[in-house]
Specification:
mainly beta; five-stranded antiparallel beta sheet; about 0% helix; about 50% strand; globular; GcvT_C; GcvT/YgfZ_C; Aminomethyltransferase C-terminal domain-containing protein
């Protein structure tokens, strides 16, 4: 879940580790106050907390070069 302090603040809809990027990526529902590009958010899973950042939805291939390959 997305958390703000100790309170729930959003919901993870999907998450996986990207072998190509070497890090975790995911999608989440985040309320307006936390959804600005570049915002730092926290994800809590299994008692552990992870730092995350809101990025542009087209962060991997914004020009579509891989799509057209």
């Amino acid at each position: 879940m997305v958390v703000a302090g100790d309170a729930p603040a959003g919901r993870i809809t999907s998450a996986r580790r990207s072998a190509r990027l070497g890090c975790g990526i995911g999608l989440a529902w985040v309320p307006n106050g936390l959804s600005e590009l570049g915002s730092k958010i926290e994800i809590r899973d299994g008692g552990r907390t992870f730092a995350a950042k809101v990025v542009d939805p087209a962060f991997y291939d914004p020009e579509g070069q891989r799509l057209g390959a």
